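explain this:

___
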Amino acid sequence: MEKSVITNASEGGVSTILAAFLQESVGHMIPWLIVAAAVIVCDLVVGIRKSLMMKEEVRFSTACRRTMGKMVSYFMFVIMVAAIDVAAHGGGIIDKWACLAVCLIEFSSIMSNILKPKGYDFNLVKFVSVVFGKRFDVEKEDIEEIIKKEKL
């Protein structure tokens, strides 16, 4: 009888701690899930626009499947980093930077989709090196390599 009382008491404590952890994690997740959803929807709209401008076939099922795949991947990533941030008592630092990295990836896709129909190519690596580079004196050649005119 004593073992069942101790077991039930410890299970109740664990479930209380787990419930508090989940509640705090969800509080961290919701704003970043909204941001991720907004960026993904923007990428979908710009991607459809690019396909229509380039006279490519646009299939509703393919666009939805790819968008849902992105949503699942990014949402799971956001949930994971928000839970890690809460567990590590990061104060929002971990989930903020991880979600901004997701936004940077989607920004690259959006920029590429905007520029592709106009005959330009967006180089994310050059963009990141110019923006986040350790040197502050950016040379003109570095900036010119971010967006290049494609050869037809």
Summary: Residues 2-118 form one domain.
